[in-house]
Amino acid sequence: MAPRRVVTLLPSATEIVCALGGGDRLVGRSHECDFPEFVRSLPPLTAPKFDIDGTSYRIDERVKAIVENGLALYRVEGERLRALRPDLIITQSQCEVCAVSERELMDVVRDWLGTRPDIVSLSPETLADVFKDIGRVAASLGLAAEGQALVDDIEGRMAAIAEKARSLDVRPTLACIEWIDPLMGAGNWMPELVELAHAANLFGETGRHSPYLDWAALSAGDPDVILICPCGFDIDRTLAEMPALAARPGWRKLRAVREGRVALADGNQYFNRPGPRLAESLEILAEILHPEAFDFGHAGTGWRPYI
To answer: Mind listing the pLDDT tens digit for each residue in 130-145?
Structure first.
């Protein structure tokens, strides 16, 4: 029997469930799940154990201190979760920093008596993994056909962009910045998106976690375009963090800065959510990299130039 009461403990899983047509089955969500808009009315079942306010540097310090002590970064509201009587809980094991982990969830449900919910744990590192996870979620909901249709649609949209981008003469170099202080590049599926958008990715490897990045390496790479999309930050918060980056020695000498090709993107809503809106993320990349050829209407909402 298909589950009728579903809890998703990460935003990408919520988006996958809704894109499959299963949004009416959701009874609970994580504190970060905010799309589609109606999910905000669902009870949040998680919360961070650290202060998420402050600068990139301060947040990084707090997170490292917790992780180094072997502690969990997030709290699961166990009693509230149990009261919802979920048939299925979707969590993740890809990143201890990004959302509640499978380990944290198992600590909560271990002592539940009676019927325990099924647990699906997602761990995407590449685009293929994202598509596979969509299929797994779809199967767990009894919506396998809808899952295949969703994957086909996303792959088709991406392929159309890639085909058009490959026909262009210009293939710019691109530096993707996923954290500002300390500097981090972008890994996992991001290098694949960059390749599909017909650009040369300078930092980060497909299928590997985002790497720390030396300022000297960024300066030496002198990219044609810089995309800044910090994990968990919207554009306004990223803009507030930019003085720390713009104060680096030699910032104004970088080619991308001189030519006005630094873009701020909503990393929270798009690039760092391994779900259906990676298609929109590729659209944003195409607009930034090839403005003469692509205009999907994301400028001003999904991204904006840094001036």
So the answer is: 999 999 999 999 999 9
